[in-house]
Amino acid sequence: MIINQTNLKMKKLSYPNHVAIIMDGNRRWAKKKNTWKFSGHKEGVNTIKKIINSALYFKLKVLTLYAFSSENWKRSINEIKFLMNLFTKVLDNEVVNFKKKNICLKIIGNINKFDINLQKSIIKAENFTKNNSGLILNIAVNYGGRWDIISGVKKIIIEIQKGLLNSNSINEYIFSKYLCLNNIIPVDLVIRTGGELRISNFLIWQIAYSELYFTKILWPDFNEENFKNALEEFSKRKRRFGGNIDN
Fold first, then answer.
1. Which of 72, 110, 201, 223 is catalytic?
2. Residue 108 domain-assigned (yes or no)
3. Which domain holds residue 12?
4. How many domains is the chain partitioned into structurally?
5. Strands 189-192 vs 18-22: parallel, antiparallel or unpaired
């Protein structure tokens, strides 16, 4: 990736700290290429590696990737089996690289539905990288924004019943502590590839004031230059968070 270092230095301060990506278009990529229907998922993994390296290059603090939604269980048994095997293989193969690159891996979502081997791979990978102090890499698997909120409500109810929490003290700050990403800085930018103009139940609480960036590029074709373009587009926007236009 060729980057103008002078421009990078001038714009660096306005780049996002936390980028979340809806990685869409793997299946359409395979269909467009007239190739094996699951090849897009394998190629998508290569794109993930490239974007993680770009996130390190631009010194992002957090990168969150939407890998498998709670709605994706509606897909064929063969595709789900392929995705679970691919996820397990990637975790086992890449965890050493994450350690070397000082990446702290976190898995967000309900992992209890996965088979025991995948659950063990997840726990092992998280524990192996938990002390890394560089990029925080969140992978959302079996995740849904509505599930996240309902899960948080259930936790709050239990705390109230135990007398550990007063319902009158609950505000946005307190509520967010019971959700995924509760100890992570806010999402600045959401990127969605594949041309769809929706957020598909992704971090619906956490991205209330995030900037949104949509591209028609299918995820396997999304590269470092495309990622850089999204970051530069973010740097041009004025974020007011509901405040005055001059702020």
1. 72
2. yes
3. 5-145+186-236
4. 1
5. parallel
The answer as to whether 179 is a domain residue is no
- Give per-residue pLDDT as tens, 178-225: 999 999 999 999 999 999 999 999 999 999 999 999 999 999 999 999
Distance (Å, whole) CA 143 – CA 182: 15
Distance CA 7, CA 12 (A): 8
For residue 168, is it within any domain?
no
Confirm whether 72 is a catalytic residue. yes
- The answer to the question of residue 107 being in a domain is yes
- The encoded tokens of residue 145 equal 């924004």
Beta-bridged to residue 135, according to DSSP, are none
Q: Does residue 24 carry a catalytic annotation?
A: yes
- The CA–CA distances, whole Å, from 17 to 10, 54, 131, 136, 179 equal 16, 13, 20, 11, 20
pLDDT in tens, 75-118: 999 999 999 999 999 999 999 999 999 999 999 999 999 999 99
The single residue of 4, 7, 17, 24 carrying the catalytic annotation is 24
Task: Please give the model's pTM, rounded to 2 decimal places.
Answer: 0.91
Residue 199, SS3 per DSSP: coil
Location of structure tokens 């064929």:
76
